[in-house]
Amino acid sequence: MSDKDKNKQLIPALERGLTILMELNRHHREMSFAEIVKRVGYPQSTSYRAVQTLEHMGFLRHHPVTGLYSLGVNVLKLGFEYVASLDVVQVGHPVIESLCEQTGCSSHIAIRDGRDAVYVARVGATNATIRRVSVGTRIPLHCTSLGRLLLTDLSKEEFESLYPDDQLLNKELGAPIWRDVLWELVQEDRQRGYVIADSYYHFGISSIAYPLYNHDGVMEGVVSIMVPVHEFTEEERTELQAQVEEAARTISGMLGHG
Fold first, then answer.
1. Which residue from 33, 190, 195, 230 has the highest number of Cβ atoms inside 10 Å of its Cβ?
2. Does one domain contain both 35 and 126?
3. Are 98 and 151 in the same domain?
4. Count of H-run helices and E-run strands, the chain
5. Which of 90-99, 136-145, 154-163 is the least confident region?
6. What spatial distance separates the first Cα and last Cα of the chain, rounded to whole Å?
7. Rounded to the nearest 5°, which phi and psi values hold at 236?
8. Residue 184 sits in the same domain as residue 95
9. What is the pLDDT of residue 36?
10. Are the C-beta atoms of 223 and 251 separated by less than 8 Å?
11. Is the same domain home to 98 and 40?
């Protein structure tokens, strides 16, 4: 189907409403109606109907004093219901909160979605000097040690189906270029059972990651922390590794893994 034919299938009113919602992001959390009209580029009457509909359905909130619009509770509800539907997030979030408190390191839970690692939970350390990774961030699996660990649950057939080409896209410094090289790294990670990597995705940052399994022994995701290389001694990193391993064991146990 050509782009022209695809456009014929679109619902203009729905497209306008979603465009307005997407404009209210972390950089523009509140906007006046005039700002909304200016940013989306729709006629004022069209924008007004869209805004009124979104407000009526709870996807926009109109502040009674300032007159500004912000995302309504139903937007948050949709997002949180999706994340909360993942049991690993429900049981894992309190554990990574404790892990962050114990280690002083930002802690995360990520799952695999196709060829991407998706961060579904995070707790940021108070004094973290590392660039934040937000919930919902997607990173190609082969570009991160955490992502490689998510591949260890795949058979060779599943792996080759996921990566049909010999050469990998989305190249990052330090990441493998060839599929066969990635497979060998994944097998090493599988044998080891965890990953500790220095400056693999971000220079100067170490990561420690352990897998999370459910009651059927299927990998549900990974738990990880990020550690500035220069801030910790080798002895301290060994202790951190043990703490991440314990967090992974706790979450897996809560998911029913024996």
1. 195
2. no
3. yes
4. 10, 8
5. 136-145
6. 49
7. -65, -35
8. yes
9. 93
10. yes
11. no
**Strand runs labelled E in 15-115:** 60-62, 69-71, 107-113
- Does a structural domain hold residue 81? no
- List of residues 6+ apart from 227 with CB closer than 8 A: 105, 205, 206, 207, 208, 237, 240
DSSP class per residue in 94-106? HHHHHHHHHHSS-
What is the distance, to the nearest Å, from the Cα of residue 251 to the centroid of all Cα atoms in its chain?
18
d(CA 195, CA 144): 10
Inside any domain, residue 151: yes
Q: What is the CATH number of the domain that holds 119?
A: 3.30.450.40
Residues 179 and 119 in one domain: yes
pTM summary value: 0.65
d(CA 183, CA 181): 5
201's torsion region: left (phi>0), alpha (psi -120 to 50) or beta?
Answer: alpha
| DSSP secondary structure string for all residues of 125-173 | -TT--SPP--TT-EEEGGGSHHHHHHTTTS-HHHHHHH--SSB-SS--T
Q: What is the largest CA-CA distance in the chain?
A: 65
Q: For residue 228, which amino acid is it?
A: P
Q: Same domain for 163 and 232? A: yes
Q: What is the CATH number of the domain that holds 27?
A: 1.10.10.10
Predicted confidence (pLDDT) per residue in 132-157, tens digit = 677 888 888 888 888 999 999 999 99
**pLDDT value at position 112?**
93
Residues 162 and 196 in one domain: yes
Q: Are residues 66 and 147 in the same domain?
A: no
What pLDDT does residue 132 have? Answer: 65
